[in-house]
Structure formats: C-alpha cells, structure tokens
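Contributing new records

If you add data, match the layout below exactly. Sequence lines come first and carry their own label; structure lines follow with theirs. Keep one chain per record. Anything else will be rejected by the validation script.
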Amino acid sequence: MTRSVIVLGAGMVGVSCALALQKRGLKVTLVDRREPGRETSYGNAGVISRSSIMPLNNPGLWKNLPKYLGNRHAAVRYRLGHLLANPGWILGFLSEAKPDRLAPRVAALESLIAPSLPLHKRLMTEAGIAWRLRDTGFLELWRSEEGRAAAEARRTFLEDHGVRVEALDRQALSALEPSLNPIFSAALLHKDSASVDWPGAVVEAYAALFAARGGTVLRHEVTGLSKQGEGWRVTTKSAQYDADLAVVALGPWSADLLRPLGLKVPLNVERGYHRHYQPAQGRFLNRPIYDVEASYMLAPMERGLRLTSGVELAHRDAPDDHAQIEQVLPRAREAFPLTEPAEDTTWRGSRPTLPDSLPMIGEAPRNPGLWLAFGNQHIGFSTGPVTGEILAALVCGEPAPADPAPFAPGRYLS
C-alpha cells in the first residue's frame, strides 16, 4: 500500500520535501498556516548561490567579534537579553568557529549547494516559471583598498572548491553594471550562481506543481504532533490528520512543535529585514549585488529593488528593530541611485539556525516515522531542493544524493 506522509511547513524546504516524496510514490499532504512561500522563504535576495559554502561561524569570526560587540555594526546586531537566555546556543555557535571544524562543515554545505541550481532549473521548467530565473550570477563588491586583499582571498577559497568566479577591475565592473556608482575597488562575479525575480512566487509555483500532480495543500495552523498507533497525528485548530509519516519542516517554528515530544532542539534564528525601492529613471541592475563592507544586498525584483539587511540575533517574535536597514540605506544609495520606496512596509523574517550552521535532515531519534528537515539558516532558498531529495531518499531507503551524516538529527538529539 502507498504510504502517506504529512509535511509541515510550506516554505522552500517543506515544498521541496513534498515534491521529492511525491516523486517517489508517497501520498503527500502539505500543511502550513499561510500560503506557500509566505514566511521565511519570502524575504531573501533570491540568489541561488553556489558560493554560500562558508558558514557564518568560521574562524574569521573571532577577528570581527570585537566590532560586533558594540552592537552598532550593520552586519550583526543582537538583543542582549536574548543572548543571555540562550547561552548554550551562543557557546555552541562560537565553539564551531575553531579552525579544525571548518573543513567538514564547508564540505557538508557544498554537498547541499553544488547540485542546487540544476535542480531549481528543472523544477522551474516543470512549474512553467523558467522565465523567473536570471542566469547572470551575482556580484560581491568591496569599497576599500584593503578590500582588494579580501577579494583575492575570497576568490582563492572559492576556486579551490571548484566555484567559478571572475575578478573585475573598475572598468570591467562598470561595463557589467553601468548604473552602479564607481565607488568599488574590487569585485567578484559569481558565475555559477543565478537569481530569481520573486522568491515567494517561486515557492508558490513549486507548491502549485505539487498540487497539480495530485498532492494536497492545506492551510491550517498546526497546534500539536503526536504518535498515533504506528503513524503520526497532526492536530490543527480545526481538524486532525493522520498519516504513516510526518515531516517537520517548519523552519523557526520547528522546535516549538517538537518540544512536547521531549525533543529539545538547540534552534536559534537569524532575523533579517527587507524593503523595496524604485531605481532612478533609466538606471537598473542586471543581477543582485552584495556590498561586503556595507553589509547589505540589493537585488532586482518584480516589484522594485530589494534591499536586505544583515543578521539580527533576537527572539523570533520580538518587536521589529529597523536600525540595521536604516543604517544600510544611505550606503546603498552611495552605490546605486535608489529613489522612493516601492511599498510602505518593511518585511521581517527569521532564518532557523543550529549551532554548527548545518540543517537537520533525517529521522528523529526514538521517534520512528518522524522526519526532520529544518535549520537551513539564511541559505534555505539555495539548499531547499537538495534537502528535500536527501530526506526523501532516506525515507524510501535509497542512496542519498549527498552524505546525510553531517545533517543527522542525532548530533543534537540523543
């Protein structure tokens, strides 16, 4: 008989899990409190980044830590009360920044990211949205003369890992992006990456593809998860649903659902903000840019240019603090002529992060039939499709497309 599975969470990771399980013949139901792609997956820069293989907590964090401690840097802000309430996560996060912990984590991230763009291209074609993809890479930019050395070190690291990048001088950068102001001393064009013009719409289209293939999409707020005989029961505010298997892919809400089962996940969040602005008349960007020293990304989107902020370490549901995005706005205008806001709102989202900056992918210890897929931090848009393929292969007893050991839930759940 066909096994049934309920996937909880309709972001990029959850929808990717649903599609991968469906492809293998399982009867899949996808549940979320909002429409697909409306939570964490909605607010990124839309980059499918082959080069996002360096975890945030790498050995270079130590030299930057003093400037972050002042809590005024655009790259990282924190709420002190939140850090004091989560000492275990902070200590675990910092302990992973040791040099001997870097190589295995880079290799693990690479295994998630390297196959991502071909998978996205296939899914976009099948979903009828290939036109949303820009196969033009993205730009990493440095302003200072010291940035030249940083750009060269970055280029060497990426090329050592098989990632194609091209170093650009001012003239080459101007030819590629003529609307950028000439304030950058060094640039890298990431040639193996691509971007989309509206990330939320991509997830929505993937969910529509899943539904068109016979999958069920339900909009309910999940309130409970429990063992029911040989299977699992999902409780919502209005109904209960039983299935042979359950997949928790609720991103920053995953730990809340698992805690009553005795599964204490050391999950924290990287909060981030974005706004949309109109370009000055006749000015445009062909691809996203990352202004490294100013700590923002600017990405051309369907509704204007999306300006994204750095990381805010705060409780998932804490009130907004727009200090970071206000801080980067004038720096972005130094680089590109932004005019009025394209909309009145500032979006905020929370990216789920485990201490080692790697996701959890696999079956929960002591809970047969309960599968976990979350913790993809700020690169879930890139790593979601491969996460889904790994999980579905494990569920079905197939060889996984990447070594699942680095992502095993048992590394944090005994």
